[in-house]
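Target chain:
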Amino acid sequence: MSHPREDRLLADIEARRDEVVALAQALIRLPTINPPGEGYREACELIGERLRGRGFTVDYVRAEGSPGDTDRHPRWNVIARREGSRPGPCVHFNSHIDVVAPGEGWTVDPFAAVVKDGKVYGRGACDMKGGLAASIIAVEALLDSGVDLPGALEISGTADEESGGYGGVAWLAERGWFSKPRVDHVIIPEPLNVDRVCIGHRGVWWGEIETQGRIAHGSMPFLGDSAIRHMGAVVEALEREAWPALDAHVTAMPVEPPGARTPTLNINSIHGGQPDVEPGGGLPAPLVADACRLVFDRRLLIEEDLDAVKAGMRALLDGLAQTRPGFRYALRDLFEVRPSMTEPDRPVVQRTADAVQKVFGRPAKLICSPGTYDQKHVDRIGNLRDCIAYGPGILDLAHQPDEYVGIDDMVASAKVMALSAYALLTGA
């Protein structure tokens, strides 16, 4: 049953439709491309100065010494906080401000924030400046509702999520910005569809396998030892042993899409031999490759142990070393994140799901993401379990040409976020 106060709040957000569009456009028009990390300070100031005018205390925090942080491309973050009338919990909305490069294939200017057919187009519209705009409008409408709010509201715009979050949420979490008693509940408005609440994500292990050979003249390969042929044996072993074994493991995590409910292994790249030659730009060198590198992407389920997964990969490679003459290899870690999943009975999950029910008239679907996002740092570094992702947009559009966010979705998600924050702060 709806409550008159909630009805007024939802009507107020509906009336701010043009405002959420204008804010999303302003954010999209700042090309905060990562790498290298352009325009972070300008984006932080757009957020911070708007919220300062609404009574928030604003901190601009540079993640000095983090990966990628330089004087030319400083890793700026903004955290805005508004205290309520009396002590209580803190609800924090966190969005990353960085976007990937636009790439080719666009039919509109990727940074013009064109509005067409009920959508706002642009790089970052879906992932995740539409969600950032919706969270700000949600909080502003909640403050304007006249409700006596205890506790605190926070909004942050953070750096470098697209490259792992080390200059953003990870750096801040290491310094207590995402831990109790400062923060109690975190909502990350990532684009995972407006009627779904994302409670976690699979883990990931990115690694590099290098096979080693011996250089020789290409006309006499028998005098050398081809590292590329050795890498071919690695790929064959993965086909024979690794991929078939993945299907035997099915997770209890509600991962979407269903194809990601087993572990996955992807070969991201293979590089071997002479440096790449542009098509038609030169002649190949007559050499036997003495080194070949393969980068892989292994996604993990919460039921898996990362150390055991690594041991399995090493056992496969050691088996080749024992059976294949001349096989030598090196295995290197590049990046790893353990799986994370918030318990479904946590208040932030339940109150957001309740809000989805009120706004859409149907139950929320609890899901997990196939890929990672900044919940990993809130959980593992901040030791704060009460974290979810909820926001507008369709995940499949992220990083695509002609990326967009639906205006109806932004408005609807702002309603959900406002109701969720109200319930978490007041216990209603």
